[in-house]
């Protein structure tokens, strides 16, 4: 049976303050804890006006201090911008504040557009380390499993004698290749179904991950909003369209609005083709959403579903968290699994 969790991008409307988004994130996290969700993840985005979560490590720490039982984590830290050792130092320190409750989700995307990426990487060398190499290094720092002859084997963080549990590491991705890499690194894998709603690719990623790491934890992050009226359904439709920018070199970038495309054009001279995509948003009653989601787990290999709610309306987000918890009763969750 499958656990449930929340992914929160901390959205705000155009006339709201950043503090509004932070307060609502705290409120949702506390509600999720009271309703026995497994974990609560917050995102990293830069210079995007609709969301406020620029620093997941700070927001995670704040949420740890505002909750007492639920696992809190990043969904995710965008590793291309940072030193792997510094990221592990931060999350090991958090683990001292809330032992056993800290999750570290790592993403490959920039989390923003060229201007923010330039500012974040101002001092990074001209030939940056590949993402896979940075992730492997981060995983080694987290596990402390360098060979003795490696100078890094002498580095210590605030988890020095295994006195607290180290963070649970997850790789965020949307491909079979990412799933295999996560399995090879022996970390959890979060498939971003809300960005790539391809059922065949999802099943391939799940099978590949479980084939290489059968005891690993696979989470499917999907968009879900409980809706009981035409007005609520209209709000869902507003957030259903994503735009994929296809560049000449084969790279892709997904954005969520036309004005984000305009922002990208102002910050970059790169040419691209635009593909509009209707993302899968599971909606309707909580019972019908549960049934729709169940069909994704045909082989019962998904360990956890993580709900992303792509609507600006806070009341609708609260209702979704409450009603989905009601249909996924505590008795159906995997007891003791983190």
From TrEMBL:
GO MF, any single term: oxidoreductase activity, acting on paired donors, with incorporation or reduction of molecular oxygen
InterPro entries: Bact_Lucif_Oxidored, CmoO-like, Luciferase-like_dom, Luciferase-like_sf
Pfam family, one: Bac_luciferase
Xref: SUPFAM superfamilies: Bacterial luciferase-like
Annotated Luciferase-like domain residues: 16-232
Domain of life: Bacteria
Gene Ontology CC entries for this record: cytosol
Similarity remark: To bacterial alkanal monooxygenase alpha and beta chains.
NCBIfam families from the UniProt entry: oxido_grp_1
Protein name in the entry: Luciferase-like domain-containing protein
Gene that this polypeptide is encoded by: ytmO
